[in-house]
Predict the structure.
Amino acid sequence: MIKQRKIELLAPAKNLECGVEAVNHGADAVYIGAPKFGARAAAGNSLEDIATLVKYAHLYNVRIYVTLNIILRDEELKETEELIRELYKIGVDALIVQDMSVLRMNLPPIALHASTQTDNRTPEKVKFMAEAGFEQVVLARELSLDEIKKIHSVSDVALEVFVHGALCVSYSGQCYISQALSGRSANRGECSQFCRLPFNLVDSEGTVIARNKHLLSLKDLNQYDYLEELLDAGVTSLKIEGRLKDVSYVKNVTAYYRRKLDEIIEQRPEYTRASSGHCTFEFTPQLDKSFSRGFTNYFLFNRSRDIASMDTPKSLGEEMGTVKEVKGNFLSVAGLKSFNNGDGVCFINEQGDLSGFRVNRVEDNKLFPQEMPKVKPHTILYRNFDQEFEKLLTRKTAERKIDIAFLLAENESGFVLSARDEDENSVSVVLPREKELARTPQTDNLRTQLSKLGNTPFVAARTDVDFDENWFIPASALAELRRQTVDQLLQLRKSNYQRPSKKIESTNHPYPQKKLTYLGNVMNVEAEAFYREHGVEEILPAYEKGPVEGASLMNCKYCIRYTMGLCPVHQGAKTKYVEPYFLSYKGKKFRLTFDCKKCEMKVINEPVENEREYTEDLAK
């Protein structure tokens, strides 16, 4: 018999509405922010809303994970522990955490997941996290398939990977530039999105290599074509990024990945769904209709030059065609796709910047904008807002139903209706009633009436009637029998739901490092105590506790030098430019260093002696 592994599609929710629609559109689990202490400070939710989502999700065996993944101050530890207890009481399945102080708290038996902010890149680190008590580990986005396989080979802990959405240019948890420049820490949920700004790239002699480009802004991740390879590498949870995204994004992207994952599971019996029910969609999911900066598979197979979105950090959308000609109040387009009235259209102008316009009216291949843009023939046009598609997504677009089988039979006192759902939950309800023969055949009518399940989460996959005679049951009595049976089945599903349970025990297995610098993100006494218990001898405070001179503010696998074709190691590039290189933005300069042995780049906010004076337009 084939041993099956449950595969989880994990969708984001910035609020209750998004969470419900994530469930409706096929998520096996949903992650959502707590009222406080999440890595998206702008995406907090009340305990009441989370409790409502938990109750709805658990009907379908969908799990709810709550993010508490910032590093904590000493004065926040008690409040965090109290909040965790409240989250446990309302039925939350697991917490996604970054701060190791949580493992020293007096917690209920709630499962913990190691956030990607804990920088899970190596087999040694992931194995340590598993032995510390984490049920699931979120891997760094930068890992290749081979690296994921190696991690899976040393531990059977559930591995979670991002498969879609925005990419941080720095390793998660290892970016301090927002804190350094604005006092807004990414590790405290307040990232200022420095990486989406336009920079000039200059060499040490002041030569401009690239001007006004979004050199640190990456395309969005899209592993849609490689889900099966990820599962075969040992991944259990496939995660969609987007806790700040709106409900239309959640609907579209979740449905898109649900369809693909179902196709894989149907062909691969060793994989099975992690939740219950099946979805029907009233629209065709299309990834290029939702926000994206273009797509990349990042480092899944090898290093690629085409992973940055240097022209704009905003959504380009789907490519529609090229401008054929421009007249007084319209422009004609050569392309295969059709536009709609109200569409948002964008393009890269002659200056290399993103421009756009709203379509007022469409006639065949002619677009009549609200305001005529400055655009020339042969310019590529993108649609970043599809009016008709967005209008469609404001309606009900999916339904999720759990299969049940009905059996209506007779007994000594009357009749009995049994219902068994796809998870083998089974109930029976008796209808005491004196039997009377019907004048006309009743079987088909009985089946039809029992199948009317309306707004319940069930659909009758099978309805059997086992009578010795053609007995008559009034429609009202049958409807009440059906209602009682469904209610009992719902209650049974709720009582039989099994939440992950894990009591964190004290451990002392050795941490992979003996020394932790500011990169360890140790901000409180309990986190420090945790690492000391696990053999770390020297522990420096988190960057957020105070600036660290000469610190690397961004630690990246992404490399500007490689992307620009200037890498002397992998590309054998010979260039006139003199290192070190600098990023320049509004008078501020950041030195780039390259660790060729590790194939990594660092961004350092460090004063340079004898700094050359640049022209005023250098940072424009």
